[in-house]
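Quick one: structure tokens for this chain, please?
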Amino acid sequence: MIPFHSVTDNHGGSSNFAPYPIKLRGKTWPTTERFFQAQKFESASNQEEIRKANSPMLAARMGRDRKRKLRRDWESVKVAVMREALQAKFSQHEDLARLLQATGDAKLVEHTENDDYWGDGGDGSGSNMLGRLLMELREAAR
């Protein structure tokens, strides 16, 4: 098993907060976190504000702000949006693609108490969707 969460971890490049810009949908996004959070909203102004956020943590907070109108289909598209962001990140940064392949067949786990959907919930009971998508991407690249 290879745990990751902080951008300073050995596999910190897998974190959505890692400073690897991606080009998607005609724009450059400083991190996958900004892209993902921005896609929660239909409003172009909300998306742009999140894209330009000073940090991925601020973008995450903005994405959780329910004063902004969440798109109706978000729950049904969020995994596809994350997959799109990860595919862009790992295809646009060869060093990350190599690191991902170097993980072999290891289970990749976003280890955090703060998230039991994208992460493992800190105790392994979470869904670990981010880790699962990374393993799917790794397998597809082989």
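The chain has six helices and four strands.
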